Amino acid sequence: MEHDRLTGLSGSVRVGWSGRFALGETHLLDRESSNNSRDSKSSEDLESLVSLAHSLRSAENSHSWHKMLQATLLSGHNDDAVALEQREKLLNEKIPSIARITERFITRLGEKSEILPVARVKRPARRAFDRLAAHTEDWEGRTLTGPVPRRALAVTRYEEANLYENRMVVELVHPILSSALLARIRKLRRLVADLADLNPTQHVGTYLRTQRLYSFWGADVLKASETQVHGERTLAVLENLAAWTQALRGSTLSALLSGRVTGQRSLRQTNVINNDLHYRSAGEVWSAFQRPEIAAESSEDRRNRLVERHQIFDLYVLGLFVRALKSLGYQPEFDVLPRLGGTVELSGVWGKLSLSRALDGVLTLESQGVSTRFVPLVDMVAADDDNSFIAQRWRELSKEINGATVIVYLGSASAIKALADCEVAAMMSSAMDDSLSVGLHLTGIPVSPLEITSLERIARAVGLAVHIPVLAKYPPILNLEDSRMPTRLIEALDSSRIAEGALSPLFHSEGNSLALRRPLTASERQNLATSVRSLSEAARGSGWQRDYGVEIPQIQGSFDRATIFLNAVLICPTCSYQARANDVKREHDIFTVKCLRCKTRWGHERCGNCQNRIPFIEPAEELLNPEIKGPGWVERIFGQDALASPCWSRTEANRYICPACKECPLQGNIPASTCGRCWDQDQLT
């Protein structure tokens, strides 16, 4: 089963349930097939995703938006998950016995035949005389009674360590224990690092972002600190066990057997394992850590497994979307989820928007007529993909986009941020394209049930899709109900004395259109009514107004619609506080507002390079933790509250990267080494 998830892209880019891309003429599929199918590989992210399947399915079957808000989207962020498992406690207790066996192991006497000097022969082999008669080179000399042997075939005895019990111990040390411990440590490190973001002494983001993380996690700061400490203690024990296990790989027994294993997935009970204290301990650990039998998988079973994997990830991404929209102040008109192929209308502080869910799971947000597509890809990045392969895969995909598209993929954010290619890392770590290349680019968001910050990354992507079209619409153009306002009416309104002289200009002219910059005062509304009334009276005469008898009565409605929009954008996107008209600074087609309650600033700034408007939301004036830099730093500091990205150098506040020309106000004025974004370009120049 295969379908095109990236509708609107070239036909050379297809994503099927198998999770593979056929990227033009590249050899990515050859690379994948040589490393086994990506579909057969697992990771802690996939395992955590599977654990959410029941909750997500239940929420989907209810068709309730509220039920999806309550669905479990985190895995492992509790005391049970960060505590030592029962088998790890057993290993911690029994590992001294395993270590003892690797140096003091049982053996059995073995026999072998070999050619030895006569002086060393203690027991001739059964065919020693036959061989001596046939090999004259082994004679010392000859006598009348026969040859005098110089060498002879002898039987020697030795201690044989290649026993099932010893192979069991060697296999237990590696790969069973080493792989199990490393996987658990890797997962626990991510959980502890994620919990550290909730610790008031360690978190690096704004207060608002931290409070949202607490709300998503469902506990308070004290519980977060306790869980983190608990996890750190467990991690210390596991790291000690992993180091001990690693040291045992160089033991005498491991060297003797050279990686020989049992070839079995379940323990076979023997007299030694049952009766020897230390071997019994090793057997108990084996039974606790033994790998399950792998049943043969039919093509139909494999297909169903992969379809289920993709569908659960689609639901997980939908769950994050529902949480993000709620956090941004949007809710549906009715308590329903968008069905496959359906659309749900939502309303919020800055107006209305729609969320569509395609049959293939792709989500589309539409705000002010601007659509942004979100494509869930569960296996965009595999756990063992190297940096060059990820970068090549992403670049080939980026060539095909023709609209605003965000890839939401399963993976670790820290692994992506560590990519050697800074530009690719920037595009794959954040919903805002902070790359240096001008033009439309694909962006990506790594998400995982193991990372609380996944919600903040999704929420910023949703915020960009919702807020930027609203800010781009300012100032709203005065249009009639179904058409543009005629030029003669525009000229009449522009020349009329509607605006109060002491206030800022009421209109902004753009070509053949007229835009409203601010809401009308009471006296201006009276002036407008008088002007419309005069035009209506003139329409009954023989002047040019007669040709616009239908349009003139619609003028008041155009002002009403524009005023509703202007009042909406004066609502703080962070705390929903309604700003007053005199709290707004306006200049031509840009405006800025500062919330009196939470101090958030929003609006536009003018790019000094290309003069385009930069829409921004600024939740904090001061520089927070300027040592946090690199791809994805904006989400880590501001989360959903930021639109345009500040300069990566983190040296001055309120300096934003222009999304049109990609110029930074500080570019060329600061050392390149302080800005990970501009470093490569400055090195080349």
Describe the structure.
- The structure is a single chain.
- The chain is α+β, with helices and mostly antiparallel strands and 685 residues long.
- The chain folds into 5 domains: 28-73 and 301-473, no CATH class; 79-104 and 163-289, no CATH class; 108-160, no CATH class; 487-568, no CATH class; 584-684, no CATH class.
- Helices cover 41% and strands 14% of the residues.
- It has 23 helices and 17 strands.
- The chain has a 7-stranded mixed sheet with strand order 5-6-7-8-9-10-11. It has a 4-stranded antiparallel sheet with strand order 14-15-16-17, covered by helices on one side. A two-stranded antiparallel sheet has the order 1-4.
- Strand 2 (139-143) and strand 3 form a beta hairpin.
- The longest helix is centred in the first third of the chain and has 33 residues, at 164-196.
- It is elongated and about 150 Å long.
- Residues 6-36 and 681-685 have low confidence and may be disordered.
Provide a count of the helices: 23
Radius of gyration: 36 Å
Q: Average pLDDT, to the nearest integer?
A: 86
Number of domains: 5
Low-confidence stretches are 6-36, 681-685
- Relative strand content: 5-15%
End-to-end Cα distance: 49 Å
Number of E-type strands: 17
Query: Strand sequence of the main sheet, in spatial order?
Result: 5-6-7-8-9-10-11
Characterize the largest beta sheet: strand count, sense, and whether it forms a barrel: 7 strands, mixed
**What does the overall shape look like?**
elongated
